[in-house]
Amino acid sequence: MTVQQARPVPNRAVGIASERVDGREKVTGLATYAAEHRDLQLDDPLHAWMVTSTIARGRVLRVDASAALALPGVERVLDHENAPRAASTDDRELAVLQDDRVGFRGQIVALVLAETPEAAREGARLVSVHYDAEPATVTLDAAGEDDFYAPEQVNAGHETDLEQGDVEAGLAGAAVRVEGRYSTPAEHNSPMEPHAATARWDGSVLTMYDSTQAVHAVAATLAPILGLEQSQLRVLAPYVGGGFGSKGLPHAPEVAAAMAAMAVEGRPVKLVVTRQQMFALTGYRPETISHVRIGAEPDGRIVALEHAAIGGTSRIKEYAEQTATAARMMYAGEHRRTTHRVAALDVAVPSWMRAPGEMPGMFALEVALDELAEACGVDPVDLRVRNEPELDPETGNPYNDRRLVECLQRGAERFGWADRPTSPQAIVDGDWWVGTGVASATYPTLWMPGNTARITADEDGRYGVAIGAVDIGTGARTVLAQIAADALDVDVASIDLAIGDTDLPAATVAGGSAGTGSWGTAIVQAAQQFRADHGDTPDPGVQTTGTAESYPDSVGHALHSFGATFAEVRVHRWTGELRVTRLLGVYSVGRVINPTTARSQFLGGLIMGLSGALFEESVRDSRFGHVVTQDLATYHVASHADVRGLEVDWLDEEDHLATPMGSRGVGEIGIVGTAAAIANAAHHATGVRVRDLPLTADLFLDVPPLP
Ligand code: MOS
Q1: Which atom of ligand 1 is nearest to the CA of 354?
Q2: Confidence of residue 491 (pLDDT cuts 50, 70, 90)
Q3: What is the DSSP code (8-state) at residue 475?
Q4: Which residue has its alpha carbon closest to ligand 1 atom 4?
Q5: Is the CB of 312 under 6 A from ligand 1?
Q6: 353 CB less than 6 Å from ligand 1?
């Protein structure tokens, strides 16, 4: 049943900084993750270890498993000749062990099943794979101009190109022009919990504990590959140790685990992806290059804007980062062109990483804005205020609640922006140059249809609330209970929330900063329908199940969140070392459902932005095609010592166009613009304009003194 549109709900639990309901389980180690389930059915598993290709392109001629099979404990070695046949191989990323083709270095070419992880790993080492290697193109530099093509659409269903007005004429007639080439490297999600799955096939149902952001999507995607009905897959993810997008879509290891379980019917199979293997098998943010051209009036008002983005994708499966889409809606200006081109490379399949599109795109755009501010002699905060559009430039629709200017102004005040010297190299503290910078942040308000919630009256005034949502560490389990409590107008303590299981009503991905809003809408609608059906004193056992197909108020509005990020950096004059001493993010995200968990999302976003600004870079070997920096020693993720003063703040608001709770998403906006704010601050400190991430120390050696 589709329930009616929801009424706004009273805010009693929503807005309270309640503690995480699962905090105790997590800090005491009682929370069970995908590789840790030891219930009766999953006890005594076989351990799977993936053998991955050492060539970037070509064919597997022969897999010699004899030495592996001779090792005590090794039970089976699956390869492309003896693995179970998939019912569908349309998705080349997920067509595991189905033919002899190798599409990238690190692809699964065999799977060893053994009694212990040690035997599986040693067995994998002993498998000898013979290849017929072909020449491979693995970097954007190596791609020819003809290799770049326009994808049919870019990630999240955005149009590939969009043109309004006459950009060339607008640029030609503009009093001030800035132009630059900006780049962001490939980056890999590095959640604390590596990807893992424990699966068991009993002949009719495949049960899988999976580290995923979307249990129903895993079942829906894997079922046709395995030749099963979706109802024959039960996927559970009670706890997930982070994802950032890398667990948003199923990847090859999940197929491998499921296939292996079906090959050894009755025996569970446990597959843990190693940290190194994650750099080839679980998605990543592809490298991007942005050409940005801006033409403006002398006072900084933008007349024409072009953002032309190029990037790499995998030859076996297209993924096109939506790098230029933020430039479509961010600022005013009559003439505008945004384009995306990709080159297919013999590399691992890119995918989602926190704020795909906005993160790299807003790095380019927001550094370009800083350059425009400099060229016009306008304060960077004022420049952004001057370019505030009245209507969404992309659609012509009014905004739901665009409050970027308030974020900038509140941030400027809190940060102490007014005292900022206008020119670079103005502040020296001992051997350190000190500078400050600003950038805007934005993220679309996505809302996903099809979420179903079930409300059940239990004994003693308790209510069961069931939805197959996943808490990947964000606090969803806590905030959904708050939402349910208000929707039913009871205390949070009266709610028994069940999530993370395909046996529960269907739910969409914990992604796109849309989980809480979309699941929450379903809960609110079902709860209100429940009250309409059963009243305030329902008989124990009565139930209402409702699916949220739309949230109609959003039609006709441009729904986005906004924010402003301020950074202070210190750059060492003799070593080039860059330290981010302060980061402040001020956000407009609608109603904040739980200040504790939302603050963690903003802080985490800022830290991930800092990490991308200074450290993160997946360096691909141009000869062999793999990522060389494939561990946490060489792929440095910001650690405690890298993070200094962090502050977050948000506007007090409710947005009932977005959701009945008045909330919008909070998961991704914190990373957006952060790297630009840091790069702009580094320029303010030193006078060196860096347009390529990350900002490494070598870029600040031999800095010339300004005249
Ligand atoms: Mo997140 S990149 O939307 O899973």
Answers
A1: 2
A2: very high
A3: S
A4: 245
A5: no
A6: yes
For ligand 1, the distance from its centroid to the CA atom of residue 565, given in whole angstroms, is 20
Residue range 414-451, pLDDT digits in tens: 999 999 999 999 999 999 999 999 999 999 999 999 99
Task: Write the CB contacts of 626 (distance below 8 Å, at least 6 apart in sequence).
Answer: 56, 105, 106, 279, 280, 620
- Report the C-alpha gap between 319 and 638 in whole angstroms: 27
Q: Is 443 in the pocket of ligand 1 (CB under 6 A)?
A: no
Name, in order, each residue with C-beta under 8 angstroms of 555's C-beta and a sequence gap of 6 or more.
none
Please tell me which residue in 306, 358, 366, 668 is annotated as part of the active site: 668
User: Can 668 be counted among the known catalytic residues?
Assistant: yes
Q: How confident is the model at residue 554 (pLDDT cuts 50, 70, 90)?
A: low
Residue 468 CB–ligand 1 contact under 6 Å: no
If we measure between CA atoms, which residue out of 35, 310, 75, 343 comes closest to residue 192?
35
In the chain, what percentage of residues exceed pLDDT 90? 95
Residue at token pair 């914990």: 510
CA neighbours within 13 Å on the CB side: how many for 122?
Answer: 14
Q: Is the CB of 76 under 6 A from ligand 1?
A: no
Atom of ligand 1 at shortest distance to CA of 510?
4
CATH number of this structure's domain 357-445+556-700: 3.30.365.10
**Amino acid 40: pLDDT:** 54
pLDDT digits (tens, 9 = 90+) for 29-71: 999 999 998 775 677 899 999 999 999 999 999 999 999 999 9
The rounded Å distance from CA 244 to ligand 1 centre is: 5
> Range(s) for CATH 3.30.365.10 in the chain?
23-31+447-548, 357-445+556-700
CA of 245 to the centre of ligand 1 (A): 4
CATH of 23-31+447-548, one of 2.40.50.140, 3.90.1150.10, 3.40.50.2300, 3.30.365.10: 3.30.365.10
